[in-house]
Amino acid sequence: MGDLRHLAVILDGNGRWAKAKGMPRTYGHMQGARTVEDMCRIVWDHGIEYFTVYAFSTENWSRPEAEVSALMKLLRDYMKNSIKRATKNNMKVRVIGDKSALAEDIRESIEKLEEVTKDNTGLKFTIAINYGSRDEIRRAVTRIAENVKAGSIAPGSITEQMISDTLDTAGYPDPDLLIRTSGEERISNFLLWQCAYSEFYFTEVNWPDFDQAELEKAMAAYAGRDRKYGGVKA
């Protein structure tokens, strides 16, 4: 399993998990956040260097106002505690997505967290917040178009690498494996460019119940696949 450097996860099923227990959806999101904390340690212990999670999509704003407010409160609390946790565990934390739509105090917390952890050498943990891959690609294309208009680059000189370097994930390798929990089998506008050659693993397990044993099942499935890129065996 040595070539599994970057794991990405769509954290799905928090609300369903809570509903099955007769609890409000917000309880599921709280437990899901705790599972993220546990998995940061577990994936690093399994030799995975990069861990990216889909926490809040651009589409999530359409959820009931009470749920969105609860998610923002959870995000505030999570960011507040992340500096101490990341420092203790030597994690480098990055937040991707359109942060301009977030409240100012959340943006400030994100900026502080990224600054404080930028030189950490352990797990590279990325959180996608107000993220949509089509929006990310649109923003990248806009920046490249502005450079073309300014004359700093020629249209013909645009390469795939240039696009990759303009995305929110610039500097990080593409995911080797994408996991989605709770039985859904789609990627829901997550890392569309980056997952061009990723392996997918879908599980019925809801995210709050995802643990080391479930990760090891996914890793075993990944290890058993014949990885190829463009017809060439990896």
General description of the model:
With 234 residues, the chain is α/β, with parallel strands linked by helices. The chain has one domain: 3-Layer(aba) Sandwich (Undecaprenyl pyrophosphate synthetase). The protein has helices at 14-20, 25-45, 65-89, 104-117, 133-150, 160-166, 212-223; strands spanning 6-10, 50-57, 92-96, 124-131, 177-180, 199-202, 228-229, 232-233. The strands form two sheets. The protein has a six-stranded parallel sheet with strand order 3-4-2-1-5-6, sandwiched between helices. The protein has a two-stranded antiparallel ribbon with strand order 7-8. A hairpin with a 2-residue loop joins strand 7 (228-229) and strand 8 (232-233). The longest helix is centred in the first third of the chain and has 25 residues, at 65-89. It is globular and about 60 Å long.
CATH topology: Undecaprenyl pyrophosphate synthetase
Radius of gyration over C-alpha positions, nearest whole angstrom: 18 Å
CATH architecture: 3-Layer(aba) Sandwich
Main beta sheet, described? 6 strands, parallel
User: Tally the helices: what do you get?
Assistant: 7
Number of E-type strands:
8
CATH superfamily: Decaprenyl diphosphate synthase-like
Distance between the termini: 13 Å
Content of β-strand = 15-25%
Overall number of domains = 1
Mean pLDDT: 92
The structural class is: alpha/beta
Identify the CATH class. Alpha Beta
